[in-house]
TrEMBL record:
PANTHER family: TRANSCRIPTIONAL REGULATOR, GNTR FAMILY, UXU OPERON TRANSCRIPTIONAL REGULATOR
Source species: Lactonifactor longoviformis DSM 17459
Classification via InterPro entries: GntR_C, TF_FadR/GntR_C, Tscrpt_reg_HTH_GntR, WH-like_DNA-bd_sf, WH_DNA-bd_sf
GO molecular function: DNA binding; DNA-binding transcription factor activity
Name used for this protein in its record: GntR family transcriptional regulator, transcriptional repressor for pyruvate dehydrogenase complex
Residue ranges occupied by any HTH gntR-type domain in the UniProt entry: 7-75
CDD domains: WHTH_GntR
Keywords of this entry: DNA-binding, Pyruvate, Transcription, Transcription regulation
Amino acid sequence: MGSLDGNRKANIVANEIIDLILKSDMKPGDKLPSERELAQRFGVGRPSVREAVSALVISGIIDIHQGDGLYVSDLDVDKLMMPFRLCMDLGKFNYEQLMEIRELFEPAAAEMAARLITDEQIEEVEAIVRNSNLENPYSFAEDDRKLHTTIFKATGNYLFLLIMQIVDNLASLSREVTGRYLEVRKVVHQDHIRIVQALQKRDEKAAGEYMKQHIEHIRMIMDLNEDVFKSEFLKVIQNMDNVDLKVDP
């Protein structure tokens, strides 16, 4: 049990160090506090810090310069995600938590993106939605991922993008369901079109509201029994005005 507690502490400290790097806007080559200072900052023993540092060195996030201390090595998103992936592998995240995070962050991200999105990014999301192949569930799921990732990038906020990477790993389950039936893909596609139209107009309120509705639709899909959600979504389609993507001149 002691070893397990030690591993948990080390995982927590590793995440705290990553959080420190991000919040301090540190860059590769910047020096980190010493192990002693980190232990004091996080209120843990130096063995826990040493174990966390070792894991981050192996991950390629931190370098140890002998006699000089700890330095940031790489801020690649995939490497920063490793502690979170470990938590996912251990089953610490579940679907309900995923939806809570999506409901909290994605409408806010859409609002921010509507305010800050560049012309090039608008062209990118337009192309993603216009070229989405509703007949191919696999390519549609990939376009779904690209659209949400581009919106998070448009916020210009690195932490939003990092959160999106976490969500994207966890969202594979919902994409399997949303991609299973053409009727569902049509609803998701209509949601995407509305979101893109709001981004085109740089309408923050509409972008946030349409993203909120989109997440609500995803929750509805996942909450419904598989035997009934197909018919339920047919009703959703019938009640939705058909929307076509129009590119503003």
